[in-house]
Structure formats: structure tokens, C-alpha cells
Amino acid sequence: MTADKRMTADEAVARLADGMTIGIGGWGSRRKPMALVRAVLRAGLTDLTVVSYGGPDVGLLAAAGRIRKLVTAFVSLDSIPLEPHFRAARQRGGLELVELDEAMVMWGLTAAAHRLPFLPVRAGIGSDVMTAGPDLRTVVSPYEDGEELVAVPALSLDAALVHLNRADARGNAQYLGPDPYFDDLFCEAAKEAYVSCERLVTSEEFADEGGPQTLLVQRHCVTGVVEAPGGAHFTSCAPDYDRDEAFQAAYARAAADPAAWREFVARFLSGDEDEYRAAVAATHGRDAS
Amino acid sequence: MNASRAEICVVACAEVWRGDGEILASPMGTVPTIGARLARLTFAPELLLTDGEAMLIADVPALGRPARVIEGWLPFRRHLALVTGGRRHVMMGASQLDRYGNQNISRIGDARRPDRQLLGVRGAPVNSLNHPVSYWIPRHSPRVLVERVDMVCGVGHDRAAAAGPAATRFHGLRRVVTDLAVLDFETPDRTLRVRSLHPGVTAEEVRAATGFPLDVPADVPRTRPPTAAELRLIREVLDPDGLRDREVRP
To answer: How far apart are CA A213 and CA A174, in angstroms?
Structure first.
């Protein structure tokens, strides 16, 4: 019998520590492990290095001052191109930014997953990512071409946080949407990975949901499994639900005014996940009436 | 039929993919998206197009409508791999662009504490070193076409040349389409020049809207207007809701 890795979001986050390097799955405002991010906020974790294809995960952590260093290629809410909380944090000098190209982030995570110190890429040379953050170094091909390439350093993570559609108690996890993003890579690049899911299923049930290629994350990489229905809210989690555009718009608007943001935090981010869901449901009920 | 400025721009954007063959056309923005779809429906039927997410689409829907036929799967991981294989021509936006084609979409101002934090470099560094790149600038102004960009995301000709063969090997800047003109880099020092002026635009207007001295050849042609068939496709098939007018004012 393999270990039962079920735990709550708060139990998962209790295993993390200040100053860690945390990778966050998803992409922009798509399938972000928001319930786990909200647990990070509640737990008071700070001084974090965050690696992410950034969305509101970065925005929330940046607004709360929890990020010391951000490694990313972009931060966006997709339907709202610029993430206002991230922008505000940057414009007050509130976090250090290491900008890598989208492909460099992928190869940096791949290098970490393969326990390599770096991977060579044809990207970055000639651009200012070479000097944005710690200077990137280059390697020269040992073959006849002798080409100079960028050595993307391994992006090794202390922990990864990802959200998928289904998972079993042992840590196998399944995505059912159009894009896996890089969630498997984040888990493989991390010492410990925490997977939240829309619905916990038995291993037998995976086959009813999708083909074997939908089984993205394997249990040998996973430390904890959290059942978190609505755990990607307000980002999208296709096919279970779309992005909550109205809520995202309210989140973005609140960035413009400190009083409005304090009210948003008091209303949505001061309680636990159940209270969050109740507050969101109340908002929708009110909008509908 | 008189074409609007947005419709002139759609055709100018479509033209950047002419002759590219069986590669992925990646338009960023409304007008380039209509342009890529127009190219696919007319003179470049081999082009591959995505639905803006993870699917390659076999039919050509109107903007905002779903495709009916999926012909392939291109999630981000495969997209990033495709980029380095070179079978792609992207048309990116630019918050700033200089005369050598260095592009900035990351930030305005200082790296530690920018005046305006923008999107981030996204895929601009890898795109510009690996496959053809064009740019779309819906509002030609001296704030966008600048003497010097605050952060080089997409690599221009001077920076690529200085960085050496690894940067120049597959580097290829094609065209810059703006709401006033089509520009290219077909000059001895690989700096921008006006390739054609849109109908109704003068050389003086373009020079005044550009933040660096700009070569406008004396015999510069006019950007070609859409044909009647192209206009019908734009208006009735590809953009019946007129979203193009939100990006380029009529």
C-alpha cells in the first residue's frame, strides 16, 4: 500500500519556510493553484523567490510583499494584459525581477528536472535578459560549429505548487484542459511538490476522465495532495470552469486604490478557503439579483 | 468601395506572411490576427494558424468565434520548441522600437524601479534569434518609435551584429506595419525606412510621428489597398463585428 498523501492546503503550506524558492504552475491567469497561494498568504510566508509564468499568483503575493525575487518571462491576467498588483510592486521598487525568456524558463526547469547545471539555448544573446538579474553566462559548442549559446542555469525549486483537474490520494494527477502548461516540469524540478485538484478520485476513475496522456504528474514527484474544488479560482480551470472575469476585473480594479484593496483583502482574503468561497458566492448572488 | 485605415493595415499585415510557405503565422493584436487569417484565405493557404490557445485550426473563423475543425495540438511546450525550429513568423507588438528594430515590451524606465512596468520580455528574445519577426504598431508615435529603447527584448540588427554569429544565424526582421506606413530594414545599415505610405498619409506626417530621423525615399509607393474580394472577406467573414476599428480609429 502506497502512502496516502492527502492533506489540507494549510498543512501543505506549513511544510514550507520563509526564504524558499517556490515554483508555481499554470500560465498567466490559467489553472493557477490559487487555493495554495491563498494558503501561503494566510501562513505569512515571506522573503520568497518565486518562479512562475506569472498571473494573479504573482500579483497576490507581490501585493502582500511576500516576494523577494521573482523569476519570470511575464506577468499577465490574459484578458487584462498587465497585472496591476505586480506593476504597482515593481513601480515602488518592491521586488527584484529576474527576467528570462519564456523558453529559457522552460529549459531552466528542464535542466533542474534532469539534475543538469544548465542547458544551452539559442536565446537571450543580444538582448537585455543577459544582464537583467544575475549575469547569464554563455558556452561554446565543443563541435565544429563552435557556436556560442546561452547556458540557462537550472531553476531548482524547493517546492512546487500546481493545480490539476483530478488527482488520486497517492499523488498521480490528471489535466483535462487543452494545455498541460508546465506543471509536470515544475514538480520534477522541485524537492517537494504539492498538487491541489478539483476533485480527488480513485486511480480506477482516471480512465473514465481521459486517455493515459492526460496523466501529467506522477506520484514519485509529489509530496502532498490537496482536494480544493474551485482551487484555481478566479483563473480558468478548463473544462471544469472558465476564468471568473467579473471577479478578476474587480481584483484588478482594486489595485488602483489602497482603500479599495484593503476592502478586497478584508472581504476575500482574511478568512480560510471556505470563507473565500462563501464570499465569492455571495458576490455572484448579489451580481445576479 | 473605400477601404478604412484599419482595412489598409489588415492587408499590410497579411502581406508580411506572403511567400512564407507552410509555417506557423503568429499574429499579436486584432489587426494582425485578421491579416494572418486573410492571408490564409487568399494568397497563403499553407499557413498554420492557432486558436490563440493550444489548438491549430483547419478552418478560418471570424474573430471571437470558435474554430470548427482542429488540425493539430500546439500547447505552450510544443510552441516554444517550434520557435527554435524556425518554422514560424511572428508579428509582435512593441511598446518601444528603435531604428535597428530593437523592441521593448518589458518596462519603461529603470530596471530596479521602473516608471512603468509592462508585460515582461515574454518570448521576444527567443523569437528574434530563431525565426522571422515583424512588428505591429497601431499608433505610430515618437513615444513608440524611439531613439533608444529602455530594455532590449526583441533583438535588432545592431545588437545582433555586435553579439556575433549565434545571434545573426537565424535572425530576420521583416517589416514594421503601423497605422501610417509600412517600414522595412532594406537599407545599407539595416535601419528602418519607409517602404510604403498608407493612402492619405504624407512623408512629413510619418517623420513627425517618429522619434528618430527616418528615411522616406522620394519615390516611395502607396500601400496597396484591399481588393474588392479582400474587403468582402474582412468585413463579412473575418471581422463582422468591426473589432479592427477599435485598434485603428476610423
So the answer is: 9
